[in-house]
Write a structure and sequence with these properties.
about 375 residues; alpha/beta; Aspartate Aminotransferase, domain 2; 3-stranded antiparallel β-sheet; globular
């Protein structure tokens, strides 16, 4: 009988630190303080330090983190924000939630992140049309974007750089944690992330104390003073329970990412002759939120893996610019989306987390190669 291996195994992440997590949960329940209390304050401080940022602001989820980041920069109705079509729909949904217009850019086929050359061509096209305000650079799968090139474009055209780090906890670019290059950056703590809560959660980081103050107000009705709204804010607060769990899990983040990188190394050595393995940008450390291979026979390979009991996924099966909710009202940008559309037909995610056992890895490799 073949060994069954799920795409993710959240229970193993809990069991690895069960006593500490259970203790943290009991501490919160016993405290009687469940929203924006000492656990959130402690996590914000620890997470900012972990990332090398001056400020961190806990919020309700990763989508809200992007919305609040945009609004903190006064980006809204009629403004243009550039990002990719090959991403979780949350990136684009958040832009639209502010009233801004998403303009989508094709990807670099090797890294699946935004193509700086196509970005600049598109920015030039929109320079006299609308109000270009920002670029959201998505560090997809745990792979850092080409930050130097993107930053240069942002400086040239006076655009705000926002880093979407929802899948990149622990990834580095030239020795620094992703999220520390833009004006403001966002994270998700959805349970499957490298740093996951046991429900929804998110955070914003920045070096700018004024932006941090605006974000803290915006996450809670625009309050600087209790019950007095200075800004038109929203309700998006990281609760104490998730913060306490994240405080535990943050201590083991780098250890678990090292395990992910070791699994990726084994995959790379075993699969390189059979499929296209992930490409890692020079001077970067991939965080391997996902391990995404590429094959011209993707659908056949997927069916074979599923028949062997190996979990796999497609991240993402349909580019956002082709989805019914968006295809009639999103700017494609100059040159279309050839690489994005091709990638969607060939990519496949293999099981990847910090607790894969040798027998699991062997079974996955055998199923791909066999």
């Amino acid at each position: 009988m073949s060994r069954k291996v799920p795409l993710v195994d959240l229970r193993k992440g809990y069991l690895a630190h069960r006593n500490e997590i259970d203790s943290a949960i009991r501490r919160v329940l016993d405290s009687g303080w469940y929203i924006l209390g000492p656990e959130v304050t402690a996590f914000e401080s620890a997470f900012a330090k972990n990332c090398g940022a001056k400020e961190a602001i806990g919020v309700g989820n990763g989508t809200d983190a992007i919305v609040i980041a945009l609004r903190a920069l006064d980006i809204g109705e009629g403004d243009v924000v550039f990002t990719v079509s090959h991403t979780a729909v949350a990136t684009v949904a958040a832009i639209e939630m502010t009233g801004a217009k998403p303009v989508l850019i094709d990807i670099d086929p090797k890294t699946y992140t935004i193509d700086p050359q196509k970005l600049e061509t598109t920015v030039e096209r929109f320079a006299g049309d609308g109000k270009p305000r920002a670029v959201i650079a998505v560090h997809l799968y745990g792979q850092p974007c080409d930050i130097d090139a993107i930053s240069a474009i942002c400086r040239k055209y006076d655009l705000n750089l926002i880093e979407d780090c929802a899948q990149a906890h622990g990834a580095t670019y030239k020795g620094n944690h992703v999220g520390t290059y833009g004006a403001i950056s966002t994270f998700s703590f959805y349970p499957t992330k490298n740093l996951g809560a046991f429900g929804d959660g998110g955070a914003i980081i920045t070096h700018d104390p004024n932006l941090a103050e605006r974000c803290r107000a915006l996450r809670q009705y625009g309050w600087h003073k209790h019950y007095i709204s200075d800004l038109a804010g929203m309700n998006s607060r990281l609760d104490e329970m998730h913060a306490a769990i994240l405080n535990v899990r943050l201590q083991y983040l780098h250890e678990e990412i090292a395990s992910r990188r070791n699994v990726a190394k084994i995959y790379n050595e075993s699969l390189a002759e059979h499929v296209t393995i992930p490409s890692v940008r020079p001077d970067c450390e991939h965080a391997y939120h996902l391990y995404v291979i590429r094959s011209g026979n993707r659908d056949d390979l997927r069916a074979k893996l599923q028949a062997s009991g190996i979990g796999c996924g497609i991240h993402y099966p349909q580019p956002i610019h082709l989805q019914n909710a968006y295809k009639h009202r999103i700017g494609l940008g100059f040159g279309g989306m050839e690489e994005t559309e091709l990638a969607a037909t060939q990519i496949l995610s293999l099981p990847m987390h910090g607790f894969l056992e040798k027998q699991d890895i062997d079974a996955i490799i055998d199923a791909v190669v066999g």
